[in-house]
């Protein structure tokens, strides 16, 4: 049976926005009717689909309110769309504010709408500095009809911190394998002025402090003193100024390319030899999965969901957060050993195919929808 599904996410926020949008697209390709209810057009919604609709949440600034009422405007829009379009499911990404808004919307609409909430880790990160939101997160989780989290680590962390009376199931993130595969983009390497014999190290993030981009630069300094290499820094964010200073201080200006925000990451991964994801918090690490799908082995930190994505010594290396020496050693050993690199590269692609295939993950979400609707 084809369903009418509403999806709410932060459309421009990194991984969660990407996963929510890609899921909507793939569900639409399977014949479901998809209604994005978001504050702006999801940035990956870059193609026309006859069965994808976009409902913009408008938040007005009133002089009497100190803060614009985004949550109420969203709940109102959710209720309006749910009633008018007769939605079966509202799939929201983040417990706060989205699950809480969905619960309010359901009451406003007075329909049989079912709410599925996916946790991406941000709720838990928020809780780390603002425990005053615990009750709201618990409420959002407990009142949802089904709750998923993007890794086993996040399920555990949520249970430990929130202790909600709800079974939270892991549904891993996925990539669109039609986009993320290794391509021949050798010309790019030359265009960036990277020599054939130089190894390419890549890091992609929103440059928040939790991503520890300084560690990436420090590790790269060691790699560059051992092997001819270049570092591609992709993305932008609050740490950028500090990173630029560090690159200068370490005398790496000629070896580090600041590429800013980029869309066609598959092409950049296709000229890369290794990826560094050295975060101190990461509930999944979608960027690692994207790189692995393009045959780029990753070195990641031993936190959150990263070890569920990167298998230590099989398709990459897992090291402790901030352990610059060991991370550098692991990266250099991989870059210097052609055979090992080839083995890890193929194994990365295989792991994405086996465990994170889009059709498998989309089916898991569909099963959850049918289950809450009693349509099994
Ligand atoms: O990491 C960020 O800064 C963005 C954040 C988000 O909300 O998109 O990413 C979270 O969700 C992604 C998709 O599930 C995960 O791949 C990231 O690991 C997770 N980030 C953190 O847990 C810090």
Automatic annotation (TrEMBL):
Stretches assigned to the Glycosyltransferase subfamily 4-like N-terminal domain: 13-177
GO MF terms, alphabetically ordered: glycosyltransferase activity
Residues in Glycosyl transferase family domain copies: 189-345
InterPro entries named among the record's database cross-references: Glyco_trans_1 (IPR001296), Glyco_trans_4-like_N (IPR028098), Glycosyltransferase_grp1 (IPR050194), Thiol_BshA (IPR023881)
Gene3D superfamilies with a match to the protein in the record: Glycogen Phosphorylase B
Superkingdom of this protein's organism: Bacteria
GO biological process, one term: bacillithiol biosynthetic process
Protein name as catalogued: N-acetyl-alpha-D-glucosaminyl L-malate synthase BshA
Organism: Falsibacillus albus
Top-level taxonomy: Bacteria, Bacillati, Bacillota, Bacilli, Bacillales
């Amino acid at each position: 049976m084809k369903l009418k599904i509403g999806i709410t996410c932060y459309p421009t926020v990194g991984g969660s926005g990407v996963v929510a949008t890609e899921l909507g697209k793939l569900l639409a390709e399977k014949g479901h009717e998809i209604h994005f209810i978001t504050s702006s057009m999801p940035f990956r919604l870059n193609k026309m689909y006859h069965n994808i609709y976009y409902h913009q949440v408008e938040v007005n600034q009133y002089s009497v309110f100190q803060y614009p009422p985004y949550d109420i405007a969203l709940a109102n829009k959710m209720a309006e769309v749910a009633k008018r379009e007769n939605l079966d499911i509202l799939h929201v990404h983040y417990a706060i504010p989205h699950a809480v808004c969905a619960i309010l919307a359901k009451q406003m609409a007075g329909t049989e709408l079912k709410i599925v909430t996916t946790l991406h880790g941000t709720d838990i990160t928020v809780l780390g500095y603002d425990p005053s939101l615990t009750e709201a997160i618990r409420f959002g989780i407990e009142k949802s009809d089904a709750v998923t989290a993007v890794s086993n680590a996040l399920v555990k962390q949520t249970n430990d911190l929130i202790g909600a009376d709800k079974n939270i199931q892991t549904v891993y993130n996925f990539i669109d394998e039609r986009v993320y595969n290794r391509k021949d983009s050798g010309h790019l390497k030359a265009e960036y002025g990277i020599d054939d014999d130089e190894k390419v190290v890549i890091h992609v993030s929103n440059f928040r402090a939790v991503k520890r981009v300084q560690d990436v630069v420090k590790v790269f300094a060691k790699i560059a003193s051992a092997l001819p290499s270049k570092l591609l820094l992709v993305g932008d964010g609050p740490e950028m100024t500090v990173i630029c200073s560090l690159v200068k201080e370490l005398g790496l200006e000629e070896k580090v390319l600041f590429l800013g925000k980029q869309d066609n990451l598959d092409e950049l991964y296709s000229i890369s030899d290794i990826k560094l994801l050295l975060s101190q918090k990461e509930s999944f690490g979608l960027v690692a999965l994207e790189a692995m799908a393009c045959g780029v082995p990753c070195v990641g930190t031993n936190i959150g969901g990263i070890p569920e994505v990167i298998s230590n010594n099989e398709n990459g290396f897992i090291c402790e957060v901030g352990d610059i020496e060991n991370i550098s050693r692991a990266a250099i050993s991989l870059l210097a050993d052609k055979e090992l690199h080839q083995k890890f590269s193929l194994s990365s692609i295989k792991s994405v195919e086996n465990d994170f295939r889009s059709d498998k993950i989309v089916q898991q979400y569909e099963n959850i929808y049918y289950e809450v609707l009693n349509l099994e």
